[in-house]
Amino acid sequence: HLSSAPSNGSKLAKVGAVPILLGLAQDERSKIGSKALITLCNIAATSEGRKALFDANAVATLVDILAKHQKNRSTAREEMQEQAVAVLLLLSQNNLRFVSLAMQAGAVDLLVSLCEHGNTRAKEKASTLLNIIREISSNEEECSDSILP
């Protein structure tokens, strides 16, 4: 993949490829969706890419992909779920905004289900992401408690 080079991931984000790739990631044909998710994962590895993904409402779209593939299980769809969680993991890094967006989109229940029913790598990624969400949520609560009299 050309997108695996960090400079190319940034370039793809800068030229506006993220909304197009998010649309392709929702494609029912698993090869197209899978390739788009891999590219989005490479883009999410860059700061410019993460910004572009947030600007394109990627969290909600990725959670929708998880929900859609939750209903229809197959090996290809499990791989797409794993890739969607991988992008979400990259978006979650040091980002308070991520947690509220993920919770609004209904990610927690889907991630719990993925921990129970996903393939091994998807389970690991979903579990890691749930831990990040819990950690950030508890840190936010501690901060708000310390500010209030």
Automatic annotation (TrEMBL):
PANTHER family: U BOX DOMAIN-CONTAINING (PTHR23315), U-BOX DOMAIN-CONTAINING PROTEIN 40 (PTHR23315:SF339)
Keyword Coiled coil: no
InterPro entries to which the protein is assigned, alphabetical: ARM-like (IPR011989), ARM-type_fold (IPR016024), Armadillo (IPR000225)
Domain of life where this protein originates: Eukaryota
Keyword list, A-Z: Ubl conjugation pathway
Gene3D superfamilies assigned: Leucine-rich Repeat Variant (1.25.10.10)
UniProt name for this protein: U-box domain-containing protein
Species classification: Eukaryota, Viridiplantae, Streptophyta, Embryophyta, Tracheophyta
